[in-house]
Design goal:
The chain is of the alpha/beta class. It folds into three domains: about 270 residues, Zn peptidases (Aminopeptidase), CATH 3.40.630; about 220 residues, Glucose Oxidase, domain 1 (3-Layer(bba) Sandwich), CATH 3.50.30; about 170 residues, Transferrin receptor-like, dimerisation domain (Transcription Elongation Factor S-II, Chain A). Helices cover about 40% and strands about 15% of the residues.
Length: about 725
């Protein structure tokens, strides 16, 4: 790790960069904003970041806990002391915790799982009371006994492999590895294939002694570490599952959790690789394909197991208070234009990395902004700083707040800027692509504390170093814009952008902070200080980066939305879709040619007889012309909008700004995505089978992937209409 940092630092230092900035995007005069940013930076303290991480992770603080109330109170105290108008908004959300957890194997192997992480003398908070036990929130109650089947990572393609081996999981319990997708996808796919229970474990190949020294010697999982986590099917809708499309407030209409369509119906339990090893060792049946293997000292078999597995789970299904801390500084000129900043404060246990490291940075921003106000500065637009509760079980605190204030947010929210856990390494940013120039500019002005070059140059160096092939390396090296990622799910931005169409950003640092503490009792201050960000300097760097976004949006003369960049990005997405369909068509032609010529292929098991290739359905022609025409209209309209922002008429510019920040709402569709209408955005959504992972132009892309050509055509029409709506809206500026 250390050697890699030095090499990359030298590479970065050879890149030409300038830290000077004369003109700031969106400002007619840069003098005041640059002066404010310099004063802002001077208030930030790495020491205080560390102190707040230690304080706020000193006790377990899950939803509804004593520690959760203490953390919310301490955060509110920081905001209030810094001069913010602070309140706590409470929502009553369902949050089930375990009553019964039993996992045992009987027969050829007799084993009862420990289902407990061991306290360590090197980790001061690992032996505390009030720790949530190891479990997957939103598992169904269940008492099932069956043979076990190993399903690799539990993805749809893994079940295709099982089918080739003639193995059916119907009526079985499956065991899947963490990784390659969001955890909730694994039981979702298992349930779809008829499994009656699901176990999930972290294999040491991915996150244990094969990846690095296990904790406490190193940062990776030891044989008792378990990743807790929600398995709510958030791709259907996030938030409290008992109040779909409405806030969990007093008098809210609720559905029974057994009827909630985003909750699974089978029992699900996460286990350590220490508990998984005896179960996997008992497996019978075919040897698993080579790329299914892991780091345990066994031969991996698919199963079914020789012995029977008994899984029994029961939960309390209680409603608990979620405490959102909301702090406000009213705008001096445009009080009804809100810049919203957020990070969640609840953790599965102590949560030093996730989420307190990000929360500590947000608090630094609030303290520094408070100091600016005390020195006489007044933001033109209203600042709203939020500390969300109940994020971990399913983005509940933020989603309930958004659903409660939906109309006001669509009228007033200029942008939402999110962070979550933070670490050491490279800038990572995702968001609305009209923000590409803003993030590019800021990434070129904030200095990476480890290398002394800009965040942009360090990120570019990393991309160039990891790119495959000379052409890709050259493109990365010559890039002039930060490659802003698209937003999937997994953090509190989801309801803002994907449900309401509020332009959003998600910002954090990482890449040199690997480890296995995620959602375990070892996500502690001791772990964080040793392996994540030992000097807490990247907490300051995150505050500098997100703070600049807030300050520049708050005081901009012309809001920094550039829809020409959105156009370029969406044009690239559509180009990918066209290429994907063309490749599918060519593949189908080749496969059918093999059938016509009676070509034979090997079966899944090489000892089987040869089998003939089977015919596949032809891929029809898809007409992308409506989307391409809409993109042509958007290109012209976006260029027009950029020209309109240059008007010398300040009143006219104010009117333009008021329309610019609501423009992204034109990309929402009334019906939402097929089978999940809560998601309204036509360009960004979590994938139906990727969970956190994004699908761009999701309605069209997923229909193509599922070879649902009728739906692909229908969704293409919806996307074309949405893009045209945005084009018409921008032309009217």
């Amino acid at each position: 790790m250390k050697k890699q940092v030095i090499i990359l630092s030298l590479f970065c230092l050879n890149l030409s960069t300038t830290n000077a900035q004369k003109n700031v995007l969106g400002f007619r005069s840069s003098e005041n904003i640059l002066k404010n940013e310099k004063t802002f930076d001077a208030q930030l303290s790495a020491t205080r970041v560390g102190e707040n991480i230690k304080l706020l992770s000193s006790v377990p603080h899950h939803v509804g806990s004593v520690g959760g109330k203490m953390v919310a109170s301490e955060i509110a105290k920081v905001f209030t002391t810094a001069g913010w108008d602070t309140k706590i908004e409470t929502y009553q959300v369902m949050f089930p915790t375990p009553i019964t957890r039993v996992l045992e194997m009987t027969g050829a192997t007799n084993y009862k799982a420990k289902l407990k992480e061991s306290p360590l003398k090197e980790d001061a908070t690992s032996n505390q009371a009030d720790q949530l036990p190891t479990y997957n929130c939103w598992s169904a109650d269940g008492d099932v006994t069956a043979n076990l089947v190993f399903v690799n990572y539990g993805l749809p393609e893994d079940y295709e492999t099982l089918a080739k081996y003639g193995i059916d999981v119907k009526g079985k319990i499956v065991i899947a590895k963490y990784g390659r997708s969001w955890r909730g996808i694994k039981p979702k796919v298992a349930q779809e294939h008829g499994a009656i229970g699901c176990l999930i474990y972290s294999d040491p190949m991915d996150d244990g002694y094969s990846a690095g020294d296990p904790y406490p010697i190193g940062a990776f999982k030891n044989d008792q570490t378990v990743q807790r986590g929600s398995i709510m099917d958030m791709v259907i809708y996030p938030g409290d599952p008992t109040t779909p499309n409405g806030a969990s407030i007093e008098g809210a209409e609720r559905v029974d959790h057994n009827d909630a369509i985003n909750l699974l119906k089978i029992p699900v339990l996460p286990i350590s690789y220490g508990d998984a090893a005896p179960l996997l060792k008992d497996m019978d049946g075919p040897v698993a394909p080579r790329n299914w293997g892991g780091g345990l000292p066994i031969t991996y078999h698919i199963g079914p197991s020789k012995s029977m597995v008994h899984l029994k789970l029961a939960f309390d299904w209680k409603t608990r208070p979620a405490l959102n801390v909301i702090a406000t500084i009213k705008g001096s000129e445009f009080p009804d234009q809100w810049i919203i900043r957020g990070n969640h404060h609840d953790g599965w246990v102590n949560g030093a990395a996730d989420p307190i490291s990000g929360m500590a940075s947000e608090l630094e921003e609030a303290i520094a902004i408070g100091a600016l106000v005390k020195q006489g500065w007044k933001p033109k637009r209203t600042l709203v700083y939020c500390a969300w509760d109940a994020e971990e079980p399913g983005l509940m605190g933020s989603t309930e707040w958004v659903e409660n204030h939906a109309a006001e947010l669509q009228a007033k929210a200029v942008a939402y800027i999110n962070s979550d856990g933070n670490g050491r390494g490279f800038l990572g940013a995702q968001g609305s692509h009209a923000f590409v120039p803003l993030i590019t500019e800021i990434s070129k002005t904030v200095i990476d504390p480890e290398t002394g070059v800009s965040l942009f140059e360090r990120s570019k160096a990393s991309r160039a170093a990891s790119a495959v092939g000379a052409t890709a390396k050259k493109e990365a090296y010559e890039s002039t814009q930060y490659p802003l990622g698209a937003m999937g799910s997994g953090s509190d931005y989801s309801s803002f952008i994907q449900h309401l169409g509020v332009p959003s950003l998600n910002i954090g640092f990482g890449g040199e902070d690997e480890g296995g503490e995620y959602h375990s009792i070892y996500d502690s201050y001791d772990m964080y200080k040793r392996f994540k960000d030992p000097t807490f300097i990247y907490g300051v760097t995150l505050a500098q980066t997100t703070g600049r976004v807030v300050l520049r949006l708050a005081d901009a003369d012309a809001l920094q939305f550039d829809f020409t960049d959105l156009h370029k990005t969406v044009k690239g997405y559509v180009g990918e879709l066209i290429k994907n369909v063309d490749q599918m068509r060519e593949t189908a032609k080749v496969e059918n040619m093999l059938v016509h010529n009676k070509v034979y292929v090997y079966a899944a098991d090489p000892t089987d007889h040869l089998k003939t290739a089977q015919p596949v359905a032809e891929v029809p022609y898809l007409d992308f012309s409506a989307v391409l025409n809409a993109l042509g209209n958007l290109e012209k309209a976006a260029t027009h909008a950029e020209a309109a922002k240059k008007t010398p008429d300040l009143k006219k510019l104010a009117d333009i700004n008021a329309k610019l920040f609501t423009a992204e709402q034109q990309l929402l569709t009334n019906a939402g995505l097929p089978r999940r209408s809560w998601y309204k955005h036509s360009l960004y959504a979590p994938g139906f089978y990727t969970g956190y992972g994004v699908k761009t132009v999701p309605g069209v892309r997923e229909a193509i992937e599922q070879k649902n050509w009728k739906e692909a055509t229908e969704q293409m029409d919806e996307v074309a209409k949405a893009i045209d709506r945005l084009a018409v809206y921008l032309e009217q500026l």
